[in-house]
Design a protein that fits this description.
This protein has a single domain, classed as Zn peptidases (Aminopeptidase, 3-Layer(aba) Sandwich), CATH 3.40.630.10. The protein is globular and about 55 Å long. The longest helix has 27 residues, at 282-308. Strand 1 and strand 2 form a beta hairpin. The protein contains 10 helices and 10 strands. The protein has 309 residues and is α/β, with parallel strands linked by helices. The protein has helices spanning 2-11, 57-72, 77-82, 93-101, 148-164, 193-198, 220-227, 238-241, 249-255, 282-308, and strands at residues 16-23, 29-35, 44-50, 83-88, 168-174, 178-181, 206-208, 214-216, 234-237, 261-267. One of its GO terms (molecular function) is metallocarboxypeptidase activity. Its cofactor is Zn(2+). This is Peptidase M14 domain-containing protein.
Length: 309
């Protein structure tokens, strides 16, 4: 995967750039890949992250499949022309290495802030500095942004927001077939809840889908994700569908960075294979997730234009 990521700028020099935005606790690079074809028009910027949790290996496999498809398949030329896409396919490289070598179900980072407490690693999805909770060094960490990985993600967004004005954050996890959005820290819905949920559930208007017919923004995630294989998704806030969780990246992106449309996909399946999704699921997962991403990009762009009027 890393060799393939490194090869992209030379293979697609007019489209792809690579930047190391930080390093992990164990010194592995956090490789940010940007697709930004010069088309002479303002573009909607999106930040898409995968493999925050180490054992969710289908997420980086799905995202790298999507990246390759966007570059190699001429069907998606419009997407490359019209969007500025920022990908972090492996957000937790140390944890992924442990999952691949010694502990398949490892979830966290690999930091060791205090050797005396016997705690290795922090859940990066409880480490962002927005309604962070000191739930213990083994989960949320000794302090918000104690992890170099989460700090690098936050710094990249904040440093680039003035010129890029990210409109979409998409955080790819597994499993359960959910489309989640803020808030996670409270059961109270955000003030723009109706706007957020409308991109998932309510009829609004149509946007052009990449296969040439009209999708209701209405069911943007559920319709697009389900359309190809009938994979059933459910949309809602963290607290509506799961449980209260503090310090998530999705909450931080909306509450601090100001990215209005901040979503989290929980990919297939619903428990049969769970985190051990077999390799033959990578392509269908990639296909349906790309369908959802394309439709979501178009919907967010159109809604952002409407909100600016």
């Amino acid at each position: 995967t890393y060799e393939w990521l490194d090869s992209l700028p030379s293979t697609y020099p007019d489209i792809v750039s690579l930047e190391t935005i930080g390093s992990s606790w164990q010194g592995r690079d956090l490789k940010l890949i940007r697709f930004n074809k010069d088309w002479g028009i303002p573009k909607t910027a999106a930040f898409i992250v995968a493999n925050m949790h180490a054992r969710e290996r289908i997420t980086s496999a799905t995202l790298t499949w999507i990246m390759n498809e966007l570059l190699a398949n001429p069907v998606y030329e419009r997407i490359l022309n019209e969007y500025d896409l920022h990908f972090l396919p492996i957000a937790n490289p140390d944890g992924l290495e442990r999952s691949q070598t010694t502990d398949r179900m490892w979830r966290k980072t690999m930091s060791d802030h205090d050797p005396e407490d016997g705690c290795i690693g922090v859940d990066p999805e409880q480490n962002f500095d927005f309604h962070w909770s000191d739930s213990g060094p083994c989960s949320s960490g000794p302090a918000p942004f104690s992890e170099s990985e989460t700090r690098a993600i936050a710094d990249y967004v904040l440093e680039n927001m003035p010129q890029l004005d990210f409109k979409l954050y998409l955080n790819i996890h597994s499993f359960s077939q959910f489309v989640l959005f803020p808030w996670g820290y409270t059961a109270t819905h955000p003030d723009d809840y109706d706007d957020l949920v409308s991109l998932s559930l309510s009829p609004i208007h149509c946007v052009e889908h990449h296969r040439g017919h009209c999708l209701e923004v209405a069911r943007i995630t559920e319709s697009a994700l389900e359309e190809r294989y009938g994979t059933q998704y459910e949309s809602g806030t963290y607290t509506d569908l799961l449980y209260r969780i503090l310090g998530t990246s999705t909450d931080w992106m909306k509450g601090v960075a100001g990215i209005k449309y901040s979503y989290q996909y929980e990919l297939r399946d619903t428990g049969e294979f769970a985190f051990l999704l077999p390799p033959d699921q990578i392509v269908p997962s990639g296909e349906e997730t790309l369908d959802g991403l394309v439709a979501l990009l178009d919907a967010v762009r159109e809604r952002s234009r409407e909100n600016a009027l």
